[in-house]
Amino acid sequence: MSTAGVAMGTAPKLKTSAMIASFADPGQKTAPAPFGHALAAAAEADPRIVGLTADLGKYTDMHIFAEAHPDRFFQMGMAEQLLFGAAAGMAEAGLVPFASTYSVFAARRAYDFICLDIAEPNLNVNIVGGLPGLTTGYGPSHQATEDVAIFRGMPNLTIVDPCDSIDIAQAVPQLAASDGPTYLRLLRGKVPTVLDEYDYEFELGKAKVLRGGNDVVFVSSGLMTMRALQAAAELEKHHVDVAVVHTPTIKPFDEATVLAELAGTGSRSRSRTTPWWAACSRPSPRPWSAPAGPGVWSRSGSRTSSSTPARCPRCTPSTG
């Protein structure tokens, strides 16, 4: 391969745009900053809601809330431990804080503060994590590959992994009204709008069957639900009837809905996808362990063949 273009400086530059990137496909309908607008609207109805961030207001859409409610917004600077410690104190005083930073900073840098000050006392603090999982073009310092594994291990904490702008807008007021702590895996900026085409309403703790199918079922969460729906539509062209179950709440996981869909009538086997955070998350996430692990399953619930998820090189050393 010629390197002339590189040497002359004419090769196209790689653009990560990690802080402002959108996951929308070209021409796809989007909504700008759905979290920020939803939080600002929820605060109109609930005077207890306050917003905090660790120097990342613009990059977690918290700036929308700050502009709408400047007297209820707190900029804590680059101090994630202070961010969540202060949020815990506010919750103790009866407020409902939404505290935003990048997922990797919340999961790693502030783990002890979140676990001891928020999760164990079961306080209504809503942790808003931008760039969850493998969603950024930046290097290892910004990859939140273990965020779900870390937060799943905390007591009392609910984890929400929304698919699109509708999911986020409907989830925010329910998170504010919930009794305990929550972790919202944030999609921000120009967020795709996907679920408006389906009979869907977000319900905390519940999975939703977006489309039925007789051959295969995809179980997905987060932005991968959009990809699962696209894959189902493509497979339909090849006469493969695919059901898609969206699981926006990862913890607690709605096993009943998933198992009911897996146990539907029909003769062909059904396979399950793994969520976009699963390959790097340990302990094993609930979708992998319901009913018993990854694989291809018949409608009777018995595994008919094994299916190994993609291996993450950071988590699984090569045996070759």
UniProtKB/TrEMBL annotation:
Cited SMART domains: Transket_pyr
Taxonomy, superkingdom: Bacteria
Transmembrane segments: none
Keyword Metal-binding (UniProt): no
Ranges for domain Transketolase-like pyrimidine-binding: 29-193
Composition bias type Low complexity, residue spans: 287-308
Region of interest (Disordered), residue spans: 264-320
Gene Ontology molecular-function annotations: magnesium ion binding
Keywords: Thiamine pyrophosphate
One Pfam family per UniProt: Transketolase_C
Cofactor field: thiamine diphosphate
Family in the record: Belongs to the transketolase family.
The protein, known as: Transketolase
Organism: Sinomonas atrocyanea
